[in-house]
Amino acid sequence: MADESIFRVMLRMNIHPGMESDFEETWYKVGHAITEHRANICQWLARDADDASVYHVISDWVDEPGFREFERSDQHLAHRTKLHPFRKTGTMATMHVVVEMDGQARAAGAAARPPEPAARP
């Protein structure tokens, strides 16, 4: 079983059509505002498999109070301000991880990591 104190946040964002590439680049540039916070474990940006204008951001935190501290911070406000022009709509769900089970690929040492976005001229 996973430690029940792990707190997961899942954002779903609809991005204005045609702005997806710029959104990805901006998200990558400002993502350190999250990962540099002492309570953040990791985060992911995923594009929806069925709608290229929908993105999911998943972040794991050591606990809910640590996430809420970040959520009220100036760093978070700056992060949101830079991403807001891309966002058409969005929702947030929060949860506590109850069980984590590694799959065979992870147990074998496989680590799938997408490439970093290419810098544009």
From TrEMBL:
Keyword annotations from UniProtKB, A to Z: Monooxygenase, Oxidoreductase
Domain ABM: 7-80
Keyword Cell membrane: no
A single MF term (Gene Ontology): monooxygenase activity
Keyword Methyltransferase: no
Pfam families xrefs: ABM (PF03992)
EC number: 1.14.-.-
Top-level EC class: oxidoreductase
Name of the protein: Antibiotic biosynthesis monooxygenase family protein
Protein's organism: Actinomadura yumaensis
